[in-house]
Amino acid sequence: MANITKKVSWSSRADESGVTAEGTPLLNGSEQPRPSRQLSRDGIFQVGRLSTVDLEEEMTSEEESLRGRPKEIPHNEKLLSLKFESLDYDNIENQLFLEEERRMSYMGFRCLEISRWVVCGLIGFLTGLIACFIDIAVEELAGMKYRVVKENIDNFTEVGGLSISLILWAVLNSAIVMMGAILVAFFEPIAAGSGIPQIKCYLNGVKIPRVVRLKTLVVKVCGVICSVVGGLAVGKEGPMIHSGAVVAAGVSQGRSTSLKRDFKIFEYFRRDTEKRDFVSAGAAAGVSAAFGAPVGGVLFSLEEGASFWNQMLTWRIFFASMISTFTLNFFLSFYHNKPGDLSNPGLINFGRFESDSGAYNLYEIPLFIAMGAFGGLLGALFNKLNYWLTIFRIRYVHRPCLQVMEAMLVAAVTAAVSFTMIYFSNDCQPLGSENKEKYPLQLFCADGEYNSMATIFFNTPEISVRSLFHTQAGTYDPLTLSLFTITYFFLACWTYGLAVSAGVFIPALLIGAAWGRLFGILLASITPNGSIWADPGKYALIGAAAQLGGVVRMTLSLTVIMMEATGNVTYGLPIMLVLMTAKIVGDYFVEGLYDIHIKLQSVPFLHWDAPATSHWLTAREVMSAPVTCLNRIEKVGTIVDVLSNTSTNHNGFPVVMQGADSDEPSKLCGLILRSQLIVLLKHKVFVELARSRLTQRKLQLKDFRDAYPRFPPIQSIHVSQDERECMMDLTEFMNATPYTVPLETSLPRVFKLFRALGLRHLVVADDVNRVVGLVTRKDLARYHLGSHGLEELQLAQT
Predict the structure, then answer these.
(1) For 610, which of 219, 538, 551, 748 could close a Cys bridge (C-beta 3.0–4.6 Å)?
(2) Number of other residues whose CB lies within 10 A of the CB of residue 584
(3) What are phi and psi of 740, to 5 degrees?
(4) Strand (E) or helix (H) holding 679
(5) pLDDT tens, 214-241?
(6) In the CATH hierarchy, which fold is given to the domain comprising 356-600?
(7) pTM
(8) Where is this region: Disordered (predicted)?
(9) Which CATH architecture has domain 137-335?
(10) What is the 3-state secondary structure (H, E, C) of 338-379?
């Protein structure tokens, strides 16, 4: 995600709600704070907003001269960023929407349903094509690089001067990675990493800027090719999930806002609710293309991604996943000169897993569970180390040029470490006719032999995982596997979080497969008849599942993905037990890797349930107040002033109506969004103009859909002084039935209602239906259960 900016001010107001700011503007960091509340005598439970803190003071002339130098960016994980807006996953049931629904016939609804299936098919097809392009590009470019380096090593092994080969390898890696890092750091920073945390946030209802843009897709695809070809300890599965989500967001809208092309199709789907469901399908199609796992893709989208689900969506997502896998395998069959052969399981081909010792034995179950516990421990260590490293990057490596230099450094170090490990390895294996090594390095081995360490270092990670799964016993020396596990663990930990497009699935699988195979070799050597039942490939599979489960904390979906990717359901039970154990052990120490990175970016992410022990908190304490309300018939100048107020930048406004008696307080009658008001101002939907122009075209939902999702800023809307005196009737456009809660509603009930319905605003009303407050995502996300009980995050303007 985006880097934290230099200026951080803690504030007491979220930017989603229509809450009036008292005092000076929020962006100046001097808003009046809400007083803190002491909730227990011993100070353990403290909930309340802190006073505003401005971390960027006025600079002296000397400090001004040093401004160009890299400085530390203050970062506090106890912050919640105000820069993230929410998505509108709740339908706006205004009069325009209801009229359209009434006019639509049964055949119209059936056509819409067919259109949803067509869109899902297109998503699967295009995602499969992108996966095919990535696979072919990586295979061809990596093959060219490894052939050049191998030829150079073979030549210099005989005449001396292998340092030239080391320099060549490091330079090639650094140059290739540099291209990918420049694309990410300078052109589209949101394309960094796997993209899974960003998509997870999007499906949760958080609007991550630029996450589903066409430019992001292009940079993502080119970046992941450069990362894998450049020899980094990365995979291409996470970027495939992100790529599928971007494809889904674009195809479902029937236009490209980046290319400014509108194909006038799928216009009904131009709203957040529909786009969310298609993005879920795109994420699943990405998993399916990466692993050849359609069912696993559906479960991944359900378990790790989607926050909202329904039965029909399940079948559409499965359809998109099937089309994605079929498309990838169909085109790859022609590339591999096997037209029509669809046996390739996916982008990441583990091959069909068949253990030499057959199925597992009952007495091996405790061993598998122990491996799961070890994988959970290693995964927790991986996540903790990466957490500290990410904090360091946020604070110090925040400039694009520094990010590119770090990526090049990691690429060079990876090449140097790989070369050193291969150079000093004495693990030589016979190169028989059944051996399928693509780039066997002889180095100092005898004729007819190859260096076994080079098999896992001098290949793409996917090929290395396949080798650890399928090669026969005795192929790898225990020392080779031990050294590889240790070095690759730290390389992968260092690599994840760089300004490159990269995933963590394959590195985690590779680490686990290495120590799992080592465990199997040790079992075979120390137990009676161990060589019969302790197949190293079997334990490599279990170790891979344990390590990946310990890092990302997935259970059900990862079990199915592993079974579909290996083409073997025999080990379904052991894999499930291993993943559950790894998750339980890992969660005891630290969160999963994706959740850590979401928290580090201060995203207001809503988990499944409200924090425990929060029932005593009510909407009265949680809500933001006072609230900026608009009258049902409001003056245009007032609306323009409210929208132009940079100190609030609210996105939702309750609409109130004065009672018959002038002394009677105004009561809630609806809710209207900033985006709706801007469209109304743009089309000048004023009461006076409607009366004077008998032929004025009535505003329709199409006008709002055409402006979606990039609504123009209020500064671009010109309103003359005469027009400011006009009136605007909001009755037809506001949501006349917004969700409301009483003041004394408990936090868990507010949380459940808000999250289950995908709301953006929840109005708090008193017993006579007067608006007293507004609850937004940030009001709920700031409460969490910490080490000292219920804690409250500080809101940061970043």
Answers:
(1) 748
(2) 14
(3) -135, 155
(4) helix 674-682
(5) 999 999 999 999 999 999 999 988 899 9
(6) Clc chloride channel (1.10.3080)
(7) 0.87
(8) 1-42
(9) Orthogonal Bundle (1.10)
(10) CCCCCCCCCCCCCCCCCCCCCCCCHHHHHHHHHHHHHHHHHH
